[in-house]
Amino acid sequence: MKSIKNFISLTFITLVTTVLLVGCSTISVNQDYDPGYDFSKLKTFGFLPIPKESGIDQINANRFGDAIKNELTAKGYTVSDKADFGVALLFGKQTKTNITSYGYGYGPYWGRNGGATNVDVSQYDEGTLIIDVIDMSKKELVWRGTGTGVINPNATVEERTANINNAVAQILAQFPPTPVQK
Fold first, then answer.
1. Is 98 in contact with 121 (CB distance < 8 Å)?
2. What is the pLDDT of residues 38-57, one digit of tens each?
3. Could you give the number of structural domains in the chain?
4. What are phi and psi of 26, to 5 degrees?
5. Domain limits at 54?
6. DSSP 106-140
7. What's the confidence (pLDDT) of residue 100?
8. Is residue 110 a contact partner of residue 156, using CB atoms and an 8 Å limit?
């Protein structure tokens, strides 16, 4: 009897943990990098100017900059005017359409006239943040991290800041890339 209670408790804890983790990871992340590049030589970083066409306004640029600075300094990198690598940002937004159909024709008139089928159509904005790492001595892109997720247009300032911090943390969790064992 005790082992069944332990099993149920363990199953419940696992389920709750899984739901919480899935709920927190609302973006999908990816990376691309030069596998021949020695990332261990990077110690200092700086920010490259954000071009007007980057899709980022000044308020959000400051939020992104703070989040990136926090994540990189937590990894042991330091900000410098003569940086080993530069960080560049790009942001894009795209309106997506979600179409959901439900109802399979069940009803009193199954056959030629079938039952009712319902269709819901909704639109939402999806944002993609790109964080580029550029080797400043070579002026070459050596790493790119991307994160894509749904944008909440009704988010408060605090929620926007938390969403940006979360997105940057998930993207930079991949940096520096782990060398592939041969």
1. yes
2. 999 999 999 999 888 887 88
3. 1
4. -90, 0
5. 2-172
6. -STTTTTT----EEEEEEEEEEEEEEEEEETTTTE
7. 86
8. no
Name the amino acid, one letter, at 114. G
Contact 174, 133 (CB under 8 A): no
pLDDT of 1 reads: 52
Domain presence at residue 69 = yes
Whole-angstrom Cα distance, residue 36 to residue 159?
A: 39
In a domain? residue 26: yes
Q: Which residue has the tokens 């408790």?
A: 9
In a domain, 162, yes or no: yes
Q: What is the largest CA-CA distance in the chain?
A: 76
Assigned domain for 178 exists: no
Q: Which residues neighbour 62 within 8 Å (Cβ) at sequence distance 6 or greater?
A: none
CATH code of the domain in which 16 resides: 3.30.160.670
* Sequence-distant (≥ 6) Cβ neighbours of residue 140 within 8 angstroms: 34, 134
Task: Return the minimum-mean-pLDDT range out of 32-36, 97-101, 108-112.
Answer: 108-112
Kindly report the number of other CB atoms within 10 A of residue 94's CB atom.
11
Among residues 109, 137, 114, the alpha carbon closest in space to that of 42 is found at 137
